[in-house]
What we know:
The chain has 6 helices and 5 strands; from the N terminus they run αβββααβαβαα. By secondary structure, it is mainly alpha-helical. Helix 1 packs antiparallel against helix 6, helix 2 (83-108) packs antiparallel against helix 5 and helix 3 (120-153) packs antiparallel against helix 5 (175-279). The longest helix has 105 residues, at 175-279. 9% of the residues are buried.
Amino acid sequence: MKIKEILVGLLEPFYYETFMPWFEDSGFILYGGGGKGGGGESEAAAPMPGVEFKPYSLTTSTGTTTGARTPGGGFGANVALDPTIAALGEAGFEGALGLQPDLLTAIKDRPDDFAFDYDPRTAAKEYYTEQAALLEPQFAQQRQDLRNDLFGSGRMGLMLSGSSVGAGGGGMVSPDAFGLGQAQSQTLAGISADSRQRALAEQQGLFGIASGAYGMNQGAQQQYLQNLQGGSAGLMGQGAGISQLEMDLINQGLTIEQARSGALSNSAMAGAQLANAGTREESSGKGGFGSLVGAVAGSAAGPVGTKIGGRIGSYF
C-alpha cells in the first residue's frame, strides 16, 4: 500500500469532520478542495455577528431619534423633537392654516370701480350765477347814477337810432343807457368765461384727488394681500423647517448606525481575506487537503519530513 493511501485513510476523516467545520465556524473561507467531491467550490462564511442593523438611540440638542426592528422584519426610525422646537413647528402650520380664510377672501375681492361724478357745465353755471349776483347791486347803482346824470343834464329825452350807436337798426335808443348796458354785458361775459375756466380747473383737481385716493385704496388692498401671502408662506416655511430638523436627526442616527455596521463588515471582510490569502496555494497546484497532508507529514519527520511532506502534498 502506498504511503499516500495510508495518510489519506488516517487524515481524511479528521480533515472533513473536524478541521473544516471548525475553520468555517471561525468565519473563514477555505479555497481549494473545499468538499469531498473535489469540485473546488468555496463555501461562504457565516454572517458576521453585529453587522446587521441593531436598535439604537441618539440624543442631540434638537431631540432624540431611535431605530428598531419592526414586527414585519423591517427596520423603522422614530424621532421626538425638543418640546420647544416641536411647538414652533406646530405654531407655523397652525398659523398658516388660520390665515387661509382671510387670504382666500382677499384674493376673491375684486377691485372697486373708479367713480367720479363732476359736471363742469353745472359748475360753470353755478359760478356765473354766484358772480353775477354779487355784481347786481353795483350794476343797479350804475343805472341809477346814469338816470340822475341824464335828468340833471337835460339829456333824459335824447334818443338816437340804434344803428348810429352800434345797437343795430330797428329803433331809437338812448346812447348813454346803451353804453352802460353794453359795459355791464361785457363784464358778465367775462364772468361767464371765467366761470367755465374755473369749473374745468376744479374738475381736473377733483379728478386728481379722486384718482389718487382710488390708487391709495387699491395699493392698500394689494399690500394687505401681499402681507397675507407672505405671512402664510413664512409660517409654512417655519413648519417645514422643523420637519426638516426631524429628517436630519433621523438621517444622523441612521448614518451613525450604518457607519458602525459598515465598520464591522469591513473588519470581517479584511479578516477573511487575510485568512484566505494564508491558506490559498493554488499557484503550486495544492488543494486544501493536499496542503494539510503535506503539513502533517512535515511536522512528523522534522526537516527531512518537511521536504517529504511537500512532495507528498503535491500528489493531492
